[in-house]
Design brief:
By secondary structure, this protein is an alpha/beta fold. About 40% of the residues lie in helices and about 15% in strands.
Length: about 325
């Protein structure tokens, strides 16, 4: 007589078809959002701290949109690289209807209208000081003054054709202000994906290289981005953004904050997204380059972790690789 009980959990793991049949979580290209960096000119600009990631001019941005469509990736997230000479303390280039972001939105929607376009609503790609908003003489980011600019920025992006505006600044009340402005100006179907729980993280370094803000930041962002020690506060932030009209919410960074993703999903049962940020991507690439891990397996396992925690989708620089792997 066997010493084991009647139920052996390994029984359903014994063959590949059975593992597929019993899988609790599904990962497909439809769960992916591909972040892309927009630059001037036509030459591809590789980003040294993000191996395999580049900045793209308008022609190549459109080519990436076609690539995403063909891979089954439903949405692109756009971030501009603004040259130093166009950066000002008030970030006024964000309100230029012919800035890099707006031109990229129009180019993509004209050429590949079936692809969703998500745009970053924040001032750090445009400010001379690297902060996400307007600062006072002491360097403190002013909440209401910043929110007023973000409203105009979101409207500009919506008018250019953005499908989702994503305020990433962490100013209080900006989601409600943006929602009201979108409704008042006829953009009732433009979604808001709120960076609701964005932490003051050490994982953002390569992103700042990508958008050209490395070395500009005076001080840090701890007065407006969240303390990594806090979880209950994240739930309060999410509740406020949902009450103000957010259609979905984001947790950023991703993998170090799986607990936050799970708690948000359990508490609100709304679409939750994660940003697998530049530092997370760079660590996977470094591990693969050092022979410490196999890139394809690392990529798929981390993305599955986001889905298992409750994510509807993930922003990831590995999106095209993951889509190809998932296609078999």
């Amino acid at each position: 007589m066997s010493q084991y009980p009647a139920l052996r959990l390994r029984r359903t793991r014994a063959s590949e078809w059975s593992r597929r049949l019993h899988a609790e979580t599904l990962l497909t290209p439809a769960n992916l959002i591909w972040p892309l960096f927009v630059t001037e000119g036509e030459a591809e600009e590789p980003i040294a701290s993000l191996p395999g990631v580049s900045r793209w001019g308008l022609k190549d941005i459109v080519a990436r949109a076609r690539e995403a469509r063909d891979l089954g990736i439903p949405c692109l997230a756009l971030f501009p690289n603004t040259p130093r000479e166009l950066r000002t303390d008030d970030g006024r280039e964000a309100l230029n209807p012919d800035n890099r972001m707006c031109r990229a939105i129009r180019a993509i929607k004209d050429a590949v209208p079936e692809i969703g376009v998500l745009t970053d609503v924040a001032l750090d790609p445009y400010t001379a000081h690297g902060h996400d908003g307007i600062v006072d003489a002491q360097g403190y980011v002013l909440n209401d003054e910043t929110s007023a600019v973000l409203v105009d920025q979101a409207l500009l992006q919506a008018e250019a054709g953005a499908d989702i505006v994503a305020p990433s600044d962490m100013m209080d009340g900006r989601v409600g202000a943006i929602r009201g402005a979108l409704e008042a100006n006829g953009h009732v179907n433009v979604q808001i994906m709120a960076y609701a729980a964005k932490y003051a993280s050490a994982f953002y370094g390569p992103f700042r290289d990508a958008v050209g803000s490395r070395g500009l930041l005076k001080g840090d962002k701890k007065t407006y981005q969240m303390d990594p020690a806090n979880a209950e506060e994240a739930l309060r932030e999410v509740a406020l953004d949902l009450a103000e009209g957010a259609d979905s919410v984001m947790v950023k960074p991703g993998l170090p904050y799986l607990d936050i993703i799970l708690r948000v999903k359990d508490a609100f049962q709304v679409p939750v997204f994660a940003y697998q940020v530049s530092g997370e991507y760079a660590m996977i690439e470094a591990a693969a380059a050092a022979g410490a891990g196999e890139r394809d397996a690392l990529v798929l396992e981390t993305l599955m972790a986001f889905r298992r925690a409750g994510c509807s989708g993930m922003l990831t620089y590995h999106a095209p690789l993951a889509a190809r792997l998932l296609a078999g």
